[in-house]
Amino acid sequence: MDQFDRAQKLEQMHRDRAINAAKRRPSQQQPMVIDGIRVCIDCLDDIQIARLKHIPDAVRCISCQQDYERRNVQ
Asked: Pick from 36, 35, 37, 38: which is nearest to 59 by CA?
């Protein structure tokens, strides 16, 4: 195995660790409240009341949640 192969393996290991850490983050995120209004952790817009009625612990607005799910599809 040459230096290039070792570097690739090391890079892949770091990438895998970062992906696994990112997958664990959503369950640890807390809702953000500004002036008594629940806001999206990504865009800081208000989270729609209808969304909160269906998902009381939502941390993202519908648009950001859809973007998040598209980025994290395996």
From this structure: 38
Give the separation between CA 55 and CA 8, rounded to whole angstroms: 42
Are residues 33 and 39 in contact, defined by beta-carbon separation less than 8 angstroms?
yes
Taking the C-alpha atoms of residue 40 and residue 29, their distance in angstroms, rounded to an integer, is: 11
pTM above 0.90, yes or no: no
- Give the other-Cβ count within 10 Å of 2's Cβ: 7
Type of residue found at 67: D
Tell me the average pLDDT across 10-37: 71
- Break the chain into its structural domains and give their ranges: 1-29, 31-74
Q: Provide the residue count of the chain.
A: 74
Bigger pLDDT: 50 vs 21: 50
